Amino acid sequence: MQALVLLLWIGALLGHGSSQNSAGSLEEGSPAPDTTGIPVEEEDPFFKVPVNKLAAAISNFGYDLYRVRSSMSPAANVLLSPLSVATALSALSLGAEHRTESTIHRALYYDLISNPDIHGTYKELLATVTAPQKNLKSASRIIFERKLRIKSSFVAPLEKSYGTRPRILTGNSRLDFQEINNWVQAQMKGKIARSTRELPSGISIFLLGVAYFKGQWVTKFDPRKTSLADFHLDEERTVRVPMMSDPKATVRYGLDSDLNCKIVQLPLTGSMSIIFFLPQKVTQNLTMIEESLTSEFIHDIDQELKTVQAVLTIPKLKLSYEGEVTKSLQEMKLQSLFESPDFSKITGKSIKLTQVEHRASFEWNEDGAGTAPSPALQPARLTFPLDYHLNQPFIFVLRDTDTGALLFIGKILDPRGT
Fold first, then answer.
1. I need a labelling partner for 169 at 20 to 30 A (CA). Which of 27, 229, 279, 321 fits?
2. What is the pLDDT of residue 35?
3. What's the mean pLDDT when you consider all of the chain?
4. SS3 at position 410
């Protein structure tokens, strides 16, 4: 697990000493050191809760998926809601025999979880992260080739744990395309635009994951302070975009000297938060930050950041993505699902995964719950002004605070759109 290295002067200025004791000393009541000479890392109590442990597993799948997508699009924005893709794969695994099930479960990091009821826990996770106060809409669907006879022993647990029924194509591509669009509109309450992409021919199994999020800050921005400002695409190119600002924002802040980036966390209503990773130089490659992203690392960050007051500017953002993640999943050791899988728990016919499609929409603006920060978030006094301006390429992570689940992740090279 990578530890977050925070600037020492923050701790000093906040009047806090290091949270670690000097070598060789133990606080009273601390457990005795291990005498075998082998370092022992105790599991964080947060991850001992089954739903949190499952959230960590599928979030790690999400970070893997993001890294593959980002490497395939080095010069473009990336927007993903990996949860919806993970949900579709997890649901599909209900119909897989042992070899194929193991392939899916390894990609989702289920092999690291000793949970006899993964799918029951997944139902609990979905109920938590899609509760009305979260402002997240996420849905997944499994679509099968026409005239396929599906076993009821697959449909029943699918409906029980994932709240969805499989769809069988009619063979009329126009009607099938229209029905899928209508389903997306119904699930997302019309918040995602209708697709204009045609359905591919020769579908055997088609997975669809869709998600929409519009966040509400705990402390709203004053629209009168929003103005056009420079966003540096690189050292030479600059564009003008609407920037929200707050000269006295209460944020949680840290600087990771290993990754050479400044990190800020902003709370959203519904026990959610966004963590921003801002490189210290506009020319800095984002890859090193991306490689560090895991559930455990993000959890460590959440524990380590300090509450301070800052001069904050953030671009207004409205992004969407529609496309395949098929090749990305094939890169993630799931190639066998597209070649010779065993889905005999679904049907007696030989079927295989043909395509995985993802549609996502994400936005934030000045909207918030209140005009003042929570009394519980009292910023420490700094002896110097702290500026945090998201005016160059950055990465953001939308996380559910209750479970630790990764809900959205983005690489923003140009906030004007995808």
1. 321
2. 47
3. 89
4. strand
